[in-house]
Design the sequence.
C-alpha cells in the first residue's frame, strides 16, 4: 500500500506552515487548523510561510513529505545546522511554537549563508511525524514509511552537496514521538547513524518526566533511561552515505 505514496522534498505550492498533529494535511484544510487556544495560528502562518519559502529557495528544501494522493501524511523537517545555532534569532525550529521553542519572528530577515559559504555542511533533523486517519490508526505507521523518508533525505542531501546529517534521539518512547516527532536511537542506528554524543535532557524532569516514564515503562524502558539524549550522525558523500 505504501508503494503508491509519493515521497519527495516539500513543494513550494504547498508550504506546510503547520504540523501534522491534528492529522493529514491537504490544500483545502491547510489554512483551516483545528481550534487550539495555545497556538496563535494566524501569527504562526505569517511567520512560517516566508521563512520556509526562503529556506527552500536558498538551500533547495527544508522538509521531506509523503503524500497519499492530495494528502500529506508524513513530514521530516530539517535545517542547516548553522541556522539552528543563530543564537537569539534561531533558538528553536518548532514551526508551531513561539520563540524560543520556535523561530524568532525576525529570523527570515537575516542573511542566510549560501551553500558555498557554509563552514559546516551539516543538516539537522528537527522532527519526523507520520500520522494516520483517526479511523485507521496504523494505516501509515510502523510500515517503514519513516525509514523511506530518511533514505530520501540521505539521497537528496548527497546530491545537493551536504556532508552530514544529524538528529537528536532518545530511547524508543512512544510519547516523545507523538509529542515532538523524535525518533528513537535504534531507528537511526538501523539507517546507519552513529551516536556521537550522549547527555541528559534537562526538559525531562518533574511532572513531565513522570508522564514520559509511564510511556517508557509500557514498552519496557526503565525510568533511569528516560532522560538519556543522543546526538546521531551520518556522513554523506556524493549521494552515498556511510557512518561517520
Sequence:
Amino acid at each position: 500500500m505504501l508503494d503508491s505514496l509519493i515521497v519527495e522534498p516539500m513543494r513550494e505550492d504547498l508550504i506546510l506552515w503547520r504540523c501534522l498533529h491534528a492529522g493529514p494535511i491537504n490544500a483545502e484544510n491547510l489554512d483551516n487548523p483545528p481550534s487550539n487556544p495555545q497556538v496563535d495560528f494566524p501569527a504562526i502562518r505569517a511567520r512560517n510561510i516566508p521563512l520556509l519559502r526562503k529556506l527552500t529557495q536558498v538551500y533547495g528544501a527544508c522538509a521531506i513529505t509523503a503524500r497519499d494522493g492530495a494528502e500529506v501524511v508524513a513530514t521530516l523537517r530539517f535545517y542547516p545546522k548553522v541556522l539552528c545555532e543563530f543564537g537569539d534569532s534561531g533558538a528553536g525550529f518548532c514551526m508551531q511554537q513561539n520563540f524560543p521553542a520556535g523561530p524568532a519572528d525576525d529570523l527570515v530577515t537575516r542573511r542566510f549563508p549560501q551553500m558555498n559559504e557554509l563552514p559546516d555542511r551539516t543538516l539537522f533533523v528537527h522532527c519526523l511525524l507520520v500520522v494516520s486517519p483517526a479511523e485507521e490508526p496504523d494505516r501509515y505507521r510502523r510500515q517503514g514509511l519513516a525509514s523511506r523518508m530518511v533514505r530520501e533525505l540521505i539521497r537528496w542531501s548527497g546530491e545537493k552537496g551536504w556532508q552530514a546529517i544529524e538528529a537528536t534521539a532518545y530511547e524508543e518512547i512512544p510519547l516523545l514521538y507523538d509529542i515532538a516527532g523524535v525518533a528513537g536511537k535504534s531507528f537511526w542506528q538501523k539507517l546507519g547513524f552513529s551516536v556521537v554524543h550522549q547527555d541528559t535532557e534537562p526538559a525531562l524532569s518533574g511532572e513531565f518526566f513522570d508522564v514520559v516514564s509511564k510511556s517508557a515503562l509500557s514498552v519496557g524502558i526503565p525510568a533511569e533511561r528516560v532522560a538519556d539524549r543522543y546526538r546521531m550522525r551520518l556522513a554523506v558523500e556524493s549521494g552515498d552515505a556511510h557512518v561517520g
